[in-house]
Structure formats: C-alpha cells, structure tokens
Amino acid sequence: MKNRLEDTLQKFKGQCDYLEVRLEQLSTLSILYRGARLELLREVQGLGGCARAYHRGGQAFASFNSLDQIDRFVAGVIAQAKLVGHSKTQLAPVPPVQEDVPAKLKNDPRAVSLARKIEILKAYNDLILSADEHIRSSAVRYQENYKRIYYGNSEGTRLMQERIDFGANLTAIAAENGNSQFGSVSCGSSQDFNALLGHEEKLRQACRDAVALLQAPEVKGGKYTVILDPRLAGTFVHEAFGHTSEAEKVVDDPHLREIMKIGAVFGSPVLNIYDSGRVVGSRGYLKYDEEGVATEKTYLIREGRLVGRLHTRETAGRLGEKATGSARALDYRFPPIARMRVTCIEGGTTSFEEMLADIKEGVYAVDAFGGQSEEMFTFTAGRGYMIRNGKIEEMVRNVTLSGNLFTTLKNIDKVGNDFALPESGGGCGKGAGGHFQFPLPVAHGSPHIRIQDVIVGGEE
Amino acid sequence: MQNLLEQTLHLVDEAEIFQQNTLQNLVCFDNNRLESVETCENIGTALRVIKDGRLGQIATADLSAPQELAQRAAEIAAYGDVVKYHFPSQGKYPQLALADSAVRQQSAEEMIACGQELIAILREVHPDLLAMCSIVNDHTRIALLNSAGLNHAYERTCQSLMIGAKLTEPNNILQIFKCVKARHLIPNAVAIAQECAAEFQLARKTVPLRSGKYPVIFTPAALADVFNGFTAGVNGAQVARQLSPLCGKIGEQVLDQRVTIIDDGLHPEGTLTAPMDDEGIAAQKTMLVENGVLRGYLCNLKAAADLDCPSTGNGLRETALDRAKSYMAGVGLDFTNLILSPGQMSYAQMLANTKLGVEIHHITGILLGNLTNGNFSGNLEVAYKIENGERIGRIKDTMISGNFYQLFRERLIDLSSEQIWTGNFGGETGSFLFPYGYFADIDLSGKE
C-alpha cells in the first residue's frame, strides 16, 4: 500500500496545486441484540482509496475500490479540479510530517474473541430482559471499528495511522398499553476493551427509569429554567455550538462571519468551551486528521468570548487562521470536512445544590436521546424531573428542549464543578457537499449546567 | 460470484451473494460558488449464509480471498440469529426499464452548467443570499445469486437535486431548500428553483405567533417527515416485537376513513422501483391502510417468518441515516415508494379557508424521540403564519408536538387533491407521493 501511494504521488505531483491520496483497510464488527434475539451480527471489511486535488481554488474528489485503477482516478480528479478552479488555492500552511502511528492499546478489542464479546453483551441483554415485567424489549448495540490509513500529499506528508474504537449502547424498552419508554447506559473507548465491562448496576437503574417513565406524566410545554446533566449538556454543546464552530459555514457567509467574529461575546464569563483531538482513550481521539494535520486542543469560547473554530486547511487558509486538525472523513468514500473530536464545556465552580437552590419551577433534564441543530437546535432528554422551590420532584417524560442558538448560550448562568466525559456508542452525523457522513466517532463532556428560558415541548 | 457461491456452499447449508456496483457523479455548489466535483465508485459484495439454522453475514470490498470470506461467514453464523426462513428461489420479476442513459452519460461540465443556471435564478431575485445546489447522478447495478437457484440482476439510475439558499443576519438564520429526485434527468429543476426564490421572498419577513392550538397545513415534504411515526408502526419487525401501536389491528379502523396508504415498489416514477428487493423477493404493491382500515404490514423475509405471512418485498440494504443503498448495510426493512391518497380540497382552498393558522415546510429534530408510538416533536425551522387566507411571513422559535395517529384520526380536515413527489436528498432512497395535509388544533409552543 505504501509503495502504491508513493508511486502515484510521485507520478502526479506538480500537475495541480495540491494532491492527496488516502488508502484504507478497514473492518467493522456490529452486534445487536433486540429482545431475546441476537438480531445482527455482521462484519464489514473495506478496502479502498480516494484522491483529492486542488487547483486554482477548485476542489475535486474521487473514491474508488478498484485500487489497480488508482492512476485513472487520480488523473480524473486533477482534470476535474481544473474544471472547478478559477481563483487561488489557499490552504493554511502546515509542516509536512512523516510518521507511523500504530494504535496504542491497553486492551485490544480485536484480541477478544467473538464468543467472549457475545457472552458479555448477552449478559447485559439478559439483565435488561429479566429486570421487570414491564420491560418488553431491549436494544444492546455494539460496534467496533478498525482502520489502517495510509496518507500522503504533494507537500511531502506521509502517514500510516491505525485507529480502533468501540462503542456500546445498552437500552431497556418498557412498554404498556401502546406506550413505550427507554432507559439506557452507554460506553466506549479508543484504548481499552474493559470499558465495556462493569455496567450492571447502572443498567439496573436504567431499567427502573424506563419502567418509571411509563407512569410519569408528560412534561407541560412552556419556558423553564433547566438544569442539564453532564451527558445532556455534552449533547447540547455538540449540537448547539459545536456544529456552528465548524468553519465551512463561516467562510463564504459575510453575515455569519460578522456574528462569529473572534472576540464576540457568546456567553457569560463562566462559559468555556473547547474541542480537542488529544483526549487519550476517548472515541474522539486522533493524532492526525484526514489532511495529515496534527490535532490539538482548540478553545472555541473562553470566558464567554469566541476565540476559535474548527478548521480544514482550506477554511483556515481562506480565513487567514491556523489549521486545527479538525478535517475528518468517515472513511475513504468521503472527502474530509470540518468536524468535532471531543467537545466539552469546561468545569466551573458551582455545586449542583447551588444550581437548584433558587429555582422556583424548572426542569432537571437527564440523559440524551440525540439532537439536531440549525439556527434553532433541538435535543431530547432521556427523562426529566420537575424542580420546585429548589427541590427535585416527580419524573416527567417527553422532555424535548429547544432554543435559539444565539440566545441560549448567553442564558447559561451556572456551570457546575462536576465535569464528566461520558463516552457512548453511535456517533456524529453531518451532511456536507451532497454526502451524509455518519457515524463519526466523537465524544462530548460537560459538568451540570443551568440555562434560563429554555422552550420545553409538550402538550400544554 | 458463482465461484464464491460454490466455495461457500462447502461450508454452510444455504448462501446468498449480493453484489453492488455504483458509480456516483456529484457536483456541489455552496455559498454561490462551485465547491467540488466528485466521482465515487462503490463496489462490494455481501455474503449471507445459513448454517445449522443460524445466519452469518459479512460484507467486503475485497474479493481477493473468497475462501477466507466464506470461512469467516460460516464462523459468524455459529453465533448468528436463529432464522426461520430460507433464501427464496427465482421469482417472477417484472421487466422494468430503470436505467436512463441520459443520467449515466451526463458529463461533469453539463452538471456544472445545470447547477450554474439554477444558482443564477436564485441570485437574480435575491443578490444577498447564499445559494446552494447539489446534483448527484447515480448509476447502480445490483446482482443477486443464491443457493436456491436465484440469479437476477438489474440496473437503475437516479438523479437527485437539492437546491436552496440561506441568509444569515444578526439573530436570524434562514435556510430554505428543496429536494427532488427521479430516475431520469429532473425535468422541472428550473421551476423548483423559481419556487424556492419565491418562498424566500415570503420567509424574509418574520412574524410573531402566540403559543396555542392552530389549524395547520403540512406541505407534502413536511407530511413525509411526520410519516416516520407511521412507517415505524407498520414495520413488520416492530410488529413482531409487539412494539408497534398497530399490533393486532389488521382490519381495524386506525386512521380517518379518507386515508389510504400504499407502499408501491412498482410505481413507474418511484426512485426505489426495482424488479426485486435485496433478498430476491419480487417487488409488489402493498396496501397498508385502505380507507382508514389497517390492511397490512411491511415485511422482509425475517419479519415475514416471525409474523407467519409472506414477505412484501421490503428487505432493503440501506445505511441507517442517509438510507443510501449499500452492500455494507445489512438487510433492513423499509418502505419503497410510499403513496398517500389525495383528498377533495385543493391546496388553494386550504389556504383560503384558514383565518389564522400555520403552513409547515420543514421541522428539525423530528427524527428524535419516540417514533414507534407515533409521537413527534421538533422546531418549526421553516413555517409561515397564515392570516385571512394568506401567508404573511415566517414564524420562528416555535415547537410542534403531536402524535401521528391522533393527527390522522382526530385532527384531519382534509388532504389536498394534488399530490407531489418528495423525498430526502441523495440517490437510491425511498420517495413519497403525497398531498398537502390540513389539520385542526395542532399544538404549537413558542416564546409568546
């Protein structure tokens, strides 16, 4: 693979402003229990490559499985870049690197037999299904990804990177009279298979929560002071701010560039947000991105002010900013775009009790189902609890939170002192350039945070 | 393929080989400029085996070692799901002409010129907006071979167009886009761009709306989003798991009697029309709801075995979220081309009849939450306030929540007499032929 890459780069370099080639071997293992059944057990082996060229500011990309046809695809991509380009190629400068980056693992998931993995997951599944008579079904999902990526570009960078990660979501489904409710536990790692172990107690609690939700009233729709637990706050920072920090949106949009001006106030001084590729062991860890740029810890907001964003070399080059190592692609089938790695609200000073103390009526929203964002973001909590006069009271369901991106960050008035970085299965999805890339391994962390005036959906 | 099948059959009882060869050409304009031109080749093989009554699945883009692949599939099958079905024999497949050489042969230059024309339409009306447009041409060849003697292949083309624009102002991001796709070159792309430009005119003005219950018009695309609750409910796998609210309700009145819903895998205009599904079951037209009465569920081989009924030809290999055809995905269960019957009232009459109400075009966050129950909620990303029969401006910061079954049982005023094709952007995904939907008393909660 290395030789093939080298030969191609030597043959075509100099024919356009910039050329890069990635060749990948990959494998994924997916296991899914639903109810008593092992519903899905499959392995996917990938072998493919891609080439990307820039010429006079124009970009073209090709992906292929016919590796013996690599020269034909590279020639095509150079011709197409010339078709697109009519200005100047502006890529942020980065030093060329040559490095082999093998995976550094505490416990290699690939060394664990399929039989053992199934035994572990089946035990979790059995635990869920026997927890309560109202638990009707389960979804115990495990995915393991392995990749070996050979990367080279016309500037002399040559990298071999190995990446391994796994994630699991263990979900209990309680149902009664056509109403179904969930409770779940998630985990994941890029370093240690043992992160999959030891979740029994949390899972029992998740089962109890799912059953309790069957009887819980629906939250009354309206505007509330809301406290988010670390998992939901992590989802919130990912959805509400992380995606907006991905720089391609800003590059060509003069209005957004004005709003997202470095130094602009986005929150109160208690708010600090960063995105880092250097959290060892997290699913969002990576040493180099898919443009061969070393990753870093990138502060996005410091003391409420915008201080950075997530760049590809092109977005950084065109904005005259520094590359951040945020150009990521799901696999060889996709071009790199600006993506998050591990996105966090940094821990603050407020205790959970202090946060609660002065709330007359509010909602404590716990656990995340997922979220989506445009100008208005939406995310769904696993469950909620009403807060009255500083006390956590009854459980409520269907807690969907939404708000306007620009005002909600400013409405974060308390940041907790209990930072946590809960890993999970699945991943981040993003559409760009006619593709939808999902699931990219990421993570997000946060302490408890408190937000004023959040719209909570539900029947009025 | 034959060779791999023979090698595999030494190790297992039954085997199936699915081969995909897709070539995709894409041009993408963003922020008024041509962003990228792409060519993506996607070739791969998926192998399913049954050994001692258990299923093993593996997929690969590397067929250099068929013996090892067969071996691994057999190993996986030792732990696999217990299957109560067999791979089917050759079916009676309809002869369908699904590949249009005009889509296959359109050059990058021609695609760029088409995109430029559409971008220019939007920019002429609104010089300050940022226009975007993606055109994707897919050409896919599917071949299926199994140990029961099935051996069939077909080709299909699809053109997918997304056109839209955004505007960013302090405290206001407006983004409007339209998606359309067809198996041929899309004939009305210019009209869609013009419609998009006209809508932008309306959307630039923001108007307030008080929280409350309103009559609401859903566009066909917005209605298709709400239908996620229904497609989860008629999914035979969900029914077999007893998680669907439609369990055991065949023959019962589940929706308003004016509602008829068909999954039509043979519709000449549908983008997922094919001679067979990805398990080799001949494509068919399946009545799901007839005059409000539940008539059937969607099944692949597995769900059909669980429910003790025949497969409806809905075993499709698609990736989870973009629902693009992929050998990498397992055989799932999904609709093909979903048809919702038209009603009596025209869209113009719906609008004229609304004194104070809302027209919804796009909801964000609707795929989150508890879909199987039919519940939906999300933000009104693009929605207009209607006053005295006229759309007067865009409403923002408003959430909708409701339930599909309640909507179509208790709140339906009428469906429109006109139907429009709609669907998610991206080639090789299901499409909807839907009318506008007009409903009473929809909960909308906002700031005021």
Describe what this molecule looks like in 3D.
The complex is a heterodimer of chains A (460) and B (448). Chain A is α+β, with helices and mostly antiparallel strands. Chain A is built from 10 helices and 23 strands. In chain A, strands 1, 2, 3, 4, 5, 6 and 7 form a 7-stranded mixed beta sheet that branches. A 5-stranded mixed beta barrel of chain A has the order 8-15-16-18-23. In chain A, strands 11-10-9-14-22 form a 5-stranded mixed beta sheet. Chain B is 22% helix and 40% strand. Chain B has 11 helices and 19 strands. In chain B, the strands form 3 sheets. In chain B, strands 3-2-1-4-5-6 form a 6-stranded antiparallel beta sheet. In chain B, strands 7-14-15-17-19 form a 5-stranded mixed barrel. Chain B has a two-stranded antiparallel sheet with strand order 11-12. In chain B, a hairpin with a 2-residue loop joins strand 2 and strand 3. In chain B, helix 1 packs across helix 2 and helix 4 runs parallel beside helix 5. Chains A and B meet through strand 2, strand 3, helix 2, helix 3 and strand 7 of A and strand 1, strand 2, strand 3, helix 2 and helix 4 of B. Strand 3 of chain A pairs parallel with strand 2 of chain B.
Largest interface: A-B, 89 and 86 residues
The helical percent of chain B reads 10-25%
Strand order of the largest sheet of chain B: 3-2-1-4-5-6
Runs of chain B in which pLDDT lies below 50 for 5 or more consecutive residues are none
Give the termini distance of chain A in whole angstroms.
61 Å
Low-confidence segments of chain A: none
Which characteristics define this entry?
heterodimer, A: 460 residues, alpha+beta, seven-stranded mixed sheet, five-stranded mixed β-barrel, 23 strands, B: 448 residues, six-stranded antiparallel sheet, five-stranded mixed barrel, 22% helix, 40% strand, globular
